[in-house]
Amino acid sequence: MGYVAKAVAEPPHSKVRAARLGKRALHPTRTRESFRQRRREGITHFHFWVLKFRLDDTNMARLCSSRFERAARRLGWTRIAGLDEAGRGALFGPVVAAAVILNPKRRIVGLDDSKKLLPERRTELSGRIREYAVAWAVAEVDAQRIDAWNIYQASRQAMQAALELLTIRPDYLLIDAMQLDVLIEQKSLIKGDARSVSIAAASILAKTHRDACMEKWDAVYPQYGLARHKGYATPDHLEALRQHGPSPLHRHSFAPVREAGCWAAGAVQEALPLEILPSGS
Questions:
Q1: Which of 20, 157, 197, 259 has the largest count of CB atoms under 10 Å?
Q2: ∠ at Cα 88 (86, 91), nearest 5°?
């Protein structure tokens, strides 16, 4: 008994791929129309997917992870420190910087930009960082030196001070949007506290330390409400400055503080009537 072989038509590639992915196959006519539309707009099919890949890669690059630390270790660096500051835009008190060398064998879950975390979560993570990090340090630069130097230089000095306080000297630095004048290999990352776990850990330590300082100073200067706004330019802080004037720990080089300390800052002078004299007199 013989068997008759039947030719079975293989489904199109797009349908095979859709079946594997569990998705509905693209309609060939609609696919051609969309391709022609993109070609009319000057975008080939290849360029379209390259552009899409780059956009997806950019979004992935913004997620907080240890990829920058792993890349540095592949190049031979072993003691990788993250550095960040807190309080750069505040009107009151010091700018605080922290430096952290995380233990690659001890993962701390939940590290992210301190501004995205709730205060309770920041406090919890701060304790874990201090417990499990290879080394960490926190440094301050007070308001008087901020007024003398400017906030950018004060932030750099605070970072360098935190770096010098580390018990283990790092051989590679990951810094949030800044370069330091030190003889250590370093990489500056824009929005680094949301991209690198080491910088995120430093931002959490700096933020929790500065918040604790604000709560302490709130007992000394209760009229400003420092425990609520942590020294930043909120409406109630600006109103307190207008009513009570700045304290010695305010940053007098910052415009809202400077204007609140000036007795004539809100003064308004009415225009005087001018008498027009007749010509020839």
A1: 197
A2: 115
For 134-175, write each residue's pLDDT tens digit: 999 999 999 999 999 999 999 999 999 999 999 999 999 999
| DSSP letter string, the chain | ----PPPPPPPPHHHHHHHHHT-PPPPHHHHHHHHHHHHHTT--HHHHHHHHHHHHHHHHHTS-BSHHHHHHHHTT---EEEEEEE-TT-SBS-EEEEEEE--TTS--TT---GGGS-HHHHHHHHHHHHHH-SEEEEEEE-HHHHHHH-HHHHHHHHHHHHHHH-SS--SEEEEES---SSSSEEEEETTGGGTBHHHHHHHHHHHHHHHHHHHHHHHH-GGGTHHHHTTS--HHHHHHHHHH---TTB-TTSHHHHHHH-TTTT---PPPPPPPPPTT-
Q: Are 84 and 202 in contact (CB under 8 A)?
A: yes
Q: State the average pLDDT over residues 82-97.
A: 98
Give the tens place of pLDDT for each residue, 108-126.
Answer: 999 999 999 999 999 999 9
Distance CA 84, CA 183 (A): 18
Banded model confidence at residue 262, pLDDT cuts 50, 70, 90 = confident
Structure confidence by residue, pLDDT tens digits, 181-198: 999 999 999 999 999 999
